[in-house]
UniProtKB/TrEMBL annotation, chains A, B:
Transmembrane intervals: none
Boundaries of every HTH lacI-type domain copy: 9-65
Pfam family, one: Peripla_BP_3
Entry keywords, A to Z: DNA-binding, Transcription, Transcription regulation
Entries under CDD domains matching the protein: HTH_LacI, PBP1_LacI_sugar_binding-like
InterPro entries: HTH_LacI (IPR000843), LacI/GalR-like_sensor (IPR046335), Lambda_DNA-bd_dom_sf (IPR010982), Peripla_BP_I (IPR028082)
GO molecular function: DNA-binding transcription factor activity; transcription cis-regulatory region binding
Protein name, per record: LacI family transcriptional regulator
Originating organism: Spirilliplanes yamanashiensis
Length: 333, 333
DNA sequence: CTACCTTACTGACACGCGCAAGTTACACGT
DNA sequence: ACGTGTAACTTGCGCGTGTCAGTAAGGTAG
């Protein structure tokens, strides 16, 4: 390790040290094909680089090649649970295996516009959870960002990769409750407005499942994460002779269990409850929570494949099958 | 918006459109001081840039200036809860207010080395949760990364910004249990090895608090997130006449409540339980969970100030006071 | 009329890199 | 002896910026 005098170590330094030209150094370090380099020279370059602690400048490389190998993920300020965390982790490994660097940036509504962000990164692709405005998309195209993938959203313009699997989640919930003998269903909608993008497709899934099974449409109620409020919702459902409720997620489901408890009632006898996500505390509840899980690994793999295809300009792969969503049956439904 | 023929819009295009030189365009767009530019010319540049949808190349800018305005956060594959999520979100806004772009990269042990990551980004600073190896730090210095901030870790070499506030958390737990009349305490250590970096300082805080209060050292047990296992732990504590337990976090605390339930017992009468984090479901538990909360906003502000100071080469600010950690008293302790 | 300052610009360089094209030196075939 | 081919290199360009060092025009002082 050389004593660095403040200056950055460049490939020119390595070349000088090895007594070669900069081009040769570049060829060796990048394993450029169709170049014949004797083993001795190669070693000379490698040791020189190691000695000086050389590492190429990402900026220069990006400038020269016109595109970086960074994939930028714009993450809204959702109360992110371990499932989204797992998805992002899996996505990172999946993209890393394909030579792409995955990077996340939180997007906060009041903050500076998203434009500022990708300008400072110049990513190869952008993965947006929320939908982007048309002007943003146009600007990104102009700035050389290869492409954009939206995951959820209301418009029909952008392809929404996660939408169908979210619908599938709602569908599984309804089907499980129907299979256990319930004919009148409720839906517990989250209180947090930021979760709308997830909640809508899930509710949509429940609705279509009910329609297909010949059941009445679900009775939807907003359920805050608070025992008394949840108790009020429980009362109304029971007044309407609702036997089973699909909760937006496990937290809402746990609120319902607390609401039942306030009335001195319990799932599943008085009201069957099914959640989503299988968070760690789900199995610790009283009764243990029945819930729907998604194989985040499979989702991540598909998302990674989509990004890679989009960057390479190839057609996008088919979405994963419906078998990635499964019911974990415990005590509450 | 001009119809872009694939090519990137550069400042040269803007200059041509405005009938000026590239230098003048640069001066206008960067508000370079000590340059006299008449208002009319300035407007000419601005409208041309807007018309063409010009946005400067981050890569070129970084190459020229030698440093980017990106702060890279290396996030280990911890099961990240909403608290860490909130911390990251707050950090992002705090840094954005200071002109820095905050970006997160998940670090997975088996994956490629961290070196690959910052090479692809060239950040101005790196914020590492886990400790970095000395060779990594040296390499980063050499590559022009201004500096490094470690948050947690075992060595004494790097400053650990979060360490003290984590100790403070454990301290508050112990003090609350002592204040409610418990003299023999237990500590519920998490099962997940990845949480060690958080668990150690918290336990350390409990230990020192016990010592200062003249109590016996806490009886430490690993508690998996599973009712039967938790029940076994509960039994052992009660056999040792332990009256109150500090849980690593709310999830572990909820496991203890489930363990008590298996014995037909309940908090706080049979065993007082106090958690950490105040996750949403904490208030929904039976009994509602008493827990310790940290003001993530204040922590984020301090971290942001530290990063800014480090990038600017100024002395680091003082850590926040101990008042950022508070007890939320509910039913369980 | 000359000397000098200010205004409003422009020309040119360097940042570090990848890669196309060019240059030796030497072996081989005829 | 002469072209041809290949191994092992090197020279040089341009990616898009920010900025230093000019420079021509116009005004003002002496």
């Amino acid at each position: 390790m050389a004593a660095t005098p403040g200056r950055r170590v460049t490939s020119a330094d390595v070349a000088r040290q090895a007594g070669l030209s900069r081009a040769t150094v570049s060829y060796v370090l990048n394993n450029t094909p169709h170049q014949s380099i004797p083993e001795e020279t190669r070693q000379r370059v490698l040791t020189a680089a190691a000695q000086l602690g050389y590492s190429p400048s990402a900026a220069a490389r990006a400038l020269r090649s016109g595109r970086s190998d960074v994939v930028l993920c714009l993450l809204p300020d959702w109360p992110v649970g371990p499932e989204v965390g797992a998805l992002l982790t899996n996505l990172s490994t999946a993209l890393a295996a394909r030579g792409l660097t995955f990077v996340i940036h939180p997007v906060i509504p009041g903050d500076r516009p998203v434009a500022e962000i990708w300008k400072a990164i110049t990513p190869a692709a952008v993965l947006a959870f929320e939908e982007l405005s048309d002007s943003d998309v146009a600007a990104m195209r102009g700035a050389g960002v290869a492409s954009v993938v939206a995951l959820l959203g209301s418009s029909r313009r952008q392809r929404r990769e996660l939408e169908v699997s979210q619908q599938r989640v709602g569908r599984m919930q309804a089907e499980h409750l129907a299979a256990t003998g319930h004919t009148r269903l409720g839906y517990a909608y989250p209180d947090d407005a930021r979760l709308r993008h997830f909640a809508e497709p899930r509710l949509e899934g429940v609705r279509t499942a009910c329609a297909e099974l010949g059941l009445d449409a679900p009775l939807v109620q907003v359920v805050p994460l608070d025992a008394p409020d949840a108790a009020a919702a429980v009362r109304r459902w029971r007044d309407n002779r609702i036997g089973g409720v699909c909760a937006y997620n496990d937290e809402v489901a746990l609120a319902l269990l607390a609401g039942l408890r306030e009335h001195g009632l319990a799932a599943p006898a008085d009201l069957a409850v099914i959640g989503v996500d299988d968070i760690p505390v789900a199995r610790l509840a009283d009764p243990p929570l029945t819930t729907v899980t998604t194989d985040q690994n499979a989702v991540a793999a598909h998302l990674a494949a989509t990004v890679v295809a989009v960057v390479a300009g190839e057609p996008q792969p088919r979405p994963p099958g419906s078998d990635i969503v499964t019911v974990t049956r415990r005590g509450s439904a």
